[in-house]
Design brief:
This protein is an alpha+beta fold. The protein is 54% helix and 16% strand. The protein contains 12 helices and 8 strands. The strands form 2 sheets. It has a 4-stranded antiparallel β-sheet, covered by helices on one side. Strands 2-3-4-5 form a 4-stranded antiparallel β-sheet, with no helix packed on it. α4 packs antiparallel against α11 and α7 packs antiparallel against α10. The radius of gyration is 23 Å and the shape is globular.
Length: 404
């Protein structure tokens, strides 16, 4: 496996990416009339891929099965990329709305950079003892990773809240190539292509600190995809709302969901990972998205006019906010732990919720019982993402089980 990864690393990874892009373009240009290519660029393929992805992510998110390492998931990802690529080229050709192109292109860039760039990503743990210099880290598979710098720990300290026992911040004072640097939770350090994250420490005497080292040359392309996807999602929020009553209803629901969510969090002793300015927008945007989804379901149960139109707008807006909240969470996770996507149970179920919401947007007929079923499934997935994930078998492996 290690030899295969080395073979697929740069420049092979770049050549594979270029070859794949050329293949997508060739299929669009010269085989657009074939049934397979037509299907890959159709709504039906989008629905099948979204449903399949939701099932795979739900299974992994429930039982922590490493499905994303399987051949099945690789094939799924490649087909998904083909569909996204053909959708982008088809959208450009027929002059589709900017939101359509930005959303599909952004998602395409994120997935392709994550897939083809995976062999170029270096991740390793580095345990530093006071006064001892190191220039080698250890990968998860036990292999050595030589570093282009020498690093040593001068001091590790824990800042506590007023109670004297709840950690407020973990900080490592380092000496890197003779220069004094610091790394703390949510405050990583980038040096010579590597980003250093505070990962662990000696809980007894604090005599050593554990750092996570990550080198990801494809990260700028991932961030570009995130930016495009965020812009496309913002455009999805645009619409005419004739029923102004929705504004106060959404605000009330948002307030209730927020109160329920934060009631279990002790802000007086907030754990270091949650002490980030990303916390408030991430939470608020998700609460608004949850409120819109709940209201979309409630409308089908009430005798209101134009319920199909209203429900469609609510689901569309909820889907847009779900991805914006997820993108904020990904940037935050990268800043705190070194991974913008760690296949954590809560992350997987957040993606399941978004995929199901997207299924509703890709449906041609949103007036029948099938549309209602999809909204119900999205709302149920939302409940699992929100609090139900803490009761799943995979909860023991979750970084987001803050109450444990």
């Amino acid at each position: 496996m290690e030899k295969l990864i080395q073979l697929l690393a740069f420049p092979s990874s770049l050549l594979l990416t270029i070859a794949f892009l050329m293949a997508v373009f060739a299929l669009h240009k010269y085989a657009s009339g074939s049934r397979v290519v037509k299907w890959l660029g159709s709504r039906k393929s989008s629905l099948v891929l979204l449903a399949s992805g939701a099932v795979l992510l739900a299974i992994e998110g429930t039982w922590s099965l490493p499905i994303h390492h399987s051949l099945l998931f690789l094939v799924y990802t490649l087909v998904l990329l083909l569909s996204l690529g053909l959708a982008v080229l088809g959208g450009i050709e027929r002059k589709a709305k900017p939101g359509f192109i930005l959303n599909h292109l952004g998602f395409f860039l994120i997935v392709s950079a994550s897939l083809f760039g995976a062999p170029d990503v270096s991740k390793a743990k580095l345990t530093l003892h006071s006064g001892k210099a190191e220039n080698v880290a250890y990968c998860d598979d036990g292999l050595l990773l030589p570093l282009p710098f020498e690093i040593s720990l001068e001091e590790f300290r824990i800042d506590y809240y007023d109670d004297g026992k709840s950690p407020r911040q973990f900080t490592s004072s380092l000496l890197i190539d003779g220069e004094k640097k610091e790394v703390s939770v949510n405050n990583p350090l980038t040096y010579k292509g590597y980003t250093l994250f505070q990962s662990g420490y000696d809980p007894v005497s604090g005599s050593y600190s554990v750092l996570q080292l990550v080198r990801d040359p494809w990260l700028p392309l991932v961030y570009l995809g995130m930016l495009l996807l965020a812009c496309g999602s913002i455009l999805l929020l645009y619409g005419k709302w004739k029923a102004k009553i929705f504004i106060p209803v959404v605000l009330v629901l948002t307030l209730l969901f927020t109160i329920f969510s934060v009631s279990k969090i002790n802000f007086g002793t907030l754990m270091p990972a949650l002490r980030s300015w990303w916390f408030v927008p991430h939470l608020f945007i998700y609460m608004v998205a949850y409120s819109l989804m709940a209201l979309a379901l409630l409308i089908w149960l009430l005798p209101v006019k134009n319920k199909e139109f209203l429900s469609e707008n609510l689901v569309r807006s909820s889907s847009a906010l779900l991805i914006i909240g997820m993108l904020i969470g990904s940037v935050w996770a990268r800043q705190a732990w070194g991974d913008y996507w760690a296949w954590d149970p809560k992350e997987n179920w957040a993606a399941v919720t978004w995929f199901i919401a997207l299924m509703h947007l890709h449906m041609k007929d949103r007036k029948g019982w099938k549309a209602v079923v999809v909204i119900v499934l999205a709302f149920l997935a939302l409940q699992i993402t929100w609090y139900g994930v803490n009761y799943l078998p995979s909860a023991i492996d979750s970084m987001h089980a803050y109450n444990n």
